Amino acid sequence: MIEVYLGFDVGIKKTGIALANSLTNVATGIDVMLHHDGIINWHQLDEIIEQYSPVKLIVGIPFKSDGSKQQMTFVARAFARKLKKRYQLDVFEIDEYLSSNEAKKQLKYNHHHKNANRIEVDRKASEIILQTWLNNS
Description:
alpha/beta; Nucleotidyltransferase, domain 5
């Protein structure tokens, strides 16, 4: 049976979402979920979960360059816990160090480029997170 996976690049204002399956093992960024006043858009996520029926959810956890925790480390881990509780699915955490920088590089944006399309960057970052997990699984 082919398994479906979703990957997440978690942010305060938005979260990038990627899709992959066990047949192709190739991640593709599919959506960016916009949060309202820092509150997760569960309605949109419920629709995505229902549409794709994933068996595993992969959440990128950001750390500082020295491996220590930062504010977003706690935000992403809280998101992972909420996913597990809400959907009763296996949730995996993966270090996402520099995934957004890599996404910008792949999209040809300079790190400080003021016109970088954040939606594209978040979608691509979720793709990188999920592809990294697939490559290491």
